[in-house]
Amino acid sequence: MCTYRTTTLAVEGSGKGAAGWFPVTDASVYFDHPVHAPADHTLNVDLRNPSRGASARVAVELDPVSARALAVAILDMLDNAPPGLIPS
Amino acid sequence: MTIGDLTARTVELEGHDGDAIEAYLALPLDTGPAGGVVVIHHMPGWDAASKEITRRFAANGYLAVCPNLYSREAPGAEPDDAAAVARANGGVPDERLVGDVAGSAAFLRGRPGSNGKVATIGFCSGGRQSFLSACSLDLDAAVDCYGAFVLTPPPDEFPLRIGPLGDRVGDLRCPLLGLFGADDQYPGPDEVAEFERSLAAEGKEFEFHSYDGAGHAFFNTDRPSFRPEAAQDGWERIWAFFGRHLSA
Fold first, then answer.
1. Minimal Cα–Cα distance from A69 to chain B, Å?
2. Range of B27's domain?
3. Within a domain: residue B1?
4. Is B171 helix (H, G, I), strand (E, B) or coil?
């Protein structure tokens, strides 16, 4: 199915795309058909910079178990960062 | 005519609001006259699979065109990048879709080899859009391949407020062929059955087939969802349907 279900948010950082590094400003998160991954549905993330054109994009398509493990790892890493390194 | 002989290229045509949009045009080498088919690509975009389907219609004697519904968002971009932009922006508004399909149908009817008849076919999100086009435009036939959210509204999380089309069933202007996977959840068997009942209640000409052992996107040869038996029968249904409704 096309779930259509999509969350978009503003982000700040950098990503490496087909043409090298660029600042990322926008993210889309969705669970839908992948373009490349061999599955019917994957958890997809686009990190983008619309001001630099459509190709300024870092894309991943992850199977749901991997995506959840990655999300947990990210939160765990942030929760356990040394005190004082993450601005409140 | 020699089946399979065709020519194909990217063209520009006039879409909604007179906008110039990209389109992929495939024509049989035989000079016709022949019917036309507007191929409405799926949400992943104006990709290689959509162009391959477009060539398939030309290979079988039809004038075929596949408009790039994301032309405005990302002209010249790779199809997956363009699809990402379109998704983030909320997808394709229904009004613009109808305008782009209308322009594509007019483009085909204006070709020297046209017999004046035009159908739409759409896959996935394009299935819903094929039905919407057939409720809004003068077409000769329409095919809906597993289009979801025809009767039910899309989830709130989708930023574009496209509504369900249940109240448009009475507006259908041409015969409709629907091809569905019995294992699909969107549209699920209950929604397909309700769609059938609505069409019958309105006295519309339609033909629905649901395939056991097939889910969503069973026509997609390069995806795990591909189901050769369903796809083979589906193509035969399409050729028979277009043979009846697109002949001069």
1. 23
2. 6-245
3. no
4. helix
